[in-house]
Amino acid sequence: MSNELFPTFYGLKFEITTTPEYRTVNQRSLSGVEMRIGFMDSPLKTFQLNLEFLYEAFKTNGVGEWRQFESFFMARHGMLDNFLFSNRNDNTATAEVFATGNGVTLAFDLTRAFGQVVEKVHNPVAAGLTSYKTVAGVRTLATGWTLGANGRITFAVAPVAGAALDWTGTFLYRVRFNSEKYRDWE
Questions:
Q1: 142 — pLDDT class (breaks 50, 70, 90)
Q2: The pTM is what?
Q3: End-to-end CA distance of the chain
Q4: What whole-number distance in Å separates Cα of residue 30 and Cα of residue 89?
Q5: What are 23-33's pLDDT values in tens digits?
Q6: Which residues of 22-60 are buried (b: 16+ CB within 10 A; e: fewer)?
């Protein structure tokens, strides 16, 4: 599992298409009664990026964008290894409530609301992440917490019962290429 971040390219258009997908089994009996079983709490998301061009004159560490992309793809061995991706259309959370304290629990998963759906945030960026707690209508900066693997925040002292916990920050998506090869446009 790689923690490499997908590079930013000059020729990347702003449009990033996101397609959520669920896995559901639908069984129908002879009488016509249907039973559905959902296998996923959160959707599998497919991102489609539009690279209008890879600007060869724009170099990072002396390497043009086309070679950067090719190198990044090859370092992942196509679909084999995953990496982190910042979807600039959807990568921030502001005052997102993720839990309510009960006076006992120390660890909570960061979440964010996406319309009517609440999704777990697996890859928050630790730098700049802030957490707050609201008790009796007073919102204060939460201190004494650590951010662990997969977006789990652990407090040194359990938040008091009824404390609304929220967070503000950015997050990344863990993705992989959906192909073993890429098309060579050169």
A1: confident
A2: 0.78
A3: 30
A4: 46
A5: 889 999 889 89
A6: eeeeeeeeeeeeeeeeeeeeeeeeebeeeeeebeeeeee
